[in-house]
Specification:
272 residues; elongated; 3-stranded antiparallel beta sheet
């Protein structure tokens, strides 16, 4: 299914599906957790220099840029998405609220509540699509001060660089965070305070000026679970890591265990 989140369309897949098969006694994955994948589709639009060899950055400043060549173009496009996936994929799990029992399963006559493992994928497409994120892309020399934003990237955005907050950050990872629906740590805007200021704890976050991930950075996955289950996103607690084990709920009676096996307990919710 596709959902719109803060103006960005993204494909959301929850697997194994809680609707089929009905037999929840089978393992869901290595940890018996559900897997929620957000997949974004990126179309890159090349920006070449004007007659003076410049292009305008986020702040409308004219900055020297390079003309694209075919080999360079493919290399940079692929590297940007690979770096984004490396940092956003498999960073978080969501704890399933105790009040939500539709995904519970049984094993050895015990009932468990699975958590939600958060996965991320970014796919490059060669034509604009209804669901694609369209990004202008500029080739800049090393050390360039060309300033990017979520829909204007540069060839140097995969490089770890020190910024005004005193932290180091890989720009493309931050910008993909915006495309996942997150604002800066201190709200929308491009003032230094929005990034957390200089040398503060908040400024270390990926949505500040650093590379630190925290549970609240799973916001897009929380929002997706709200769309799927209608349980408010804040109840899907985001935690770092991929090894959050399912929660033991109760010991099942023999009859309850048999009912689970035949899929007759706690009927599955209907997909919307």
């Amino acid at each position: 299914m596709f959902i719109s989140h803060n103006g960005t369309m993204q494909e959301v897949t929850l697997s194994p599906s809680p609707y089929f098969p009905r037999d929840r006694t089978r393992p869901m994955d290595g940890l018996n957790n559900m897997v929620l994948t957000i997949r974004q589709f990126y179309f890159f639009d090349p920006v070449n220099p004007d007659a003076s060899g410049n292009a305008r950055d986020t702040d409308k400043n004219l900055i020297p840029v390079n003309a694209w060549t075919p080999g360079r173009w493919d290399q940079v496009c692929n590297e940007l998405l690979n770096v984004a996936k490396r940092y956003w994929d498999n960073q978080f799990c969501l704890r399933t609220p105790a009040s939500y029992q539709a995904y519970n399963y049984s094993f050895d006559r015990n009932e468990y509540r699975p958590n939600i493992q958060c996965r991320f994928d970014a796919v490059r497409v060669n034509t604009r699509q209804a669901n694609s994120i369209n990004v202008q892309l500029v080739d800049v020399p090393a050390g360039s001060r060309f300033r990017a934003h979520s829909r204007l990237w540069t060839s140097q955005d995969t490089v770890l660089k020190t910024n005004f907050t005193g932290n180091q950050q890989i720009t493309v990872v931050h910008e993909v965070g915006h495309n996942l629906g997150s604002d800066h740590v201190n709200g929308p805007g491009n003032d230094p305070a929005n990034y957390g200021g200089v040398g503060t704890y908040n400024s270390r976050n990926i949505m500040g000026g650093g590379m630190v991930f925290e549970g609240w950075n799973a916001y897009s996955w929380q929002h997706a679970m709200q769309q799927i289950t209608r349980v408010p996103f804040a109840q899907w607690e985001g935690v770092l890591g991929t090894s959050v084990t399912p929660t033991w709920v109760r010991r099942l009676s023999f009859v309850d265990s048999i009912l689970y096996q035949y899929g007759e307990m706690a009927p599955y919710p209907m997909p919307f």
